[in-house]
Design brief:
The protein is built from 9 helices and no strands. The protein has helices at about 10-25, 30-40, 45-60, 65-75, 75-90, 90-110, 110-115, 120-130, 135-149. Helix content is about 75%, strand content about 0%. By secondary structure, the chain is mainly α.
């Protein structure tokens, strides 16, 4: 789990730093620039975590039930509930981006494997965010699950 340093900063400085972070993101002009920036600023684990949250929101938006999401994304009920609560209570960002992503996937006419398989969508999202080595991890988990059955 990501932790904040024990060295406390004054609230006004935190506000300035967070504002500058948002400003930095708005200065990025292409997908490649966004990918490069986030590769530098967050870990591969954090990228996968964010990609999973987005996929949970996307599946909830599409009406998927918890058991399907849990199985497809290998996440806990707690993770799903957390995203669902945020999505329902606040979720302005999710409500902006999820419909746009769905519209984009329809425009591009992605192969069925990408539109009907959440694990493939998660992999595509993680790759898009620059997660290195995630494909191998997904394949290993899939093989372990198959072997366990």
């Amino acid at each position: 789990m990501t932790k904040v340093s024990r060295k406390i900063l004054p609230e006004d400085k935190i506000g300035l730093y967070v504002d500058e972070f948002w400003r930095a993101i708005t200065l990025l002009e292409s997908k490649e620039e966004v990918r490069a920036f986030f590769r530098d600023i967050i870990t591969s684990t954090e990228r996968v975590m964010l990609a999973k949250r987005l996929q949970i929101a996307k599946l909830l938006y599409q009406g998927a039930d918890y058991s399907f999401i849990k199985k497809e994304l290998n996440v806990s009920n707690t993770a799903i509930t957390s995203v669902a609560r945020w999505f329902d209570s606040f979720g302005e960002g999710y409500k902006l981006i999820v419909p746009r992503l769905l519209a984009l996937s329809k425009k591009k006419k992605l192969p069925k494997i990408w539109t009907n398989n959440s694990q493939a969508q998660l992999l595509a999202g993680a790759i898009a965010l620059g997660a290195r080595g995630i494909r191998g991890q997904v394949i290993k988990r899939t093989k372990r699950r198959s072997a366990a059955k």
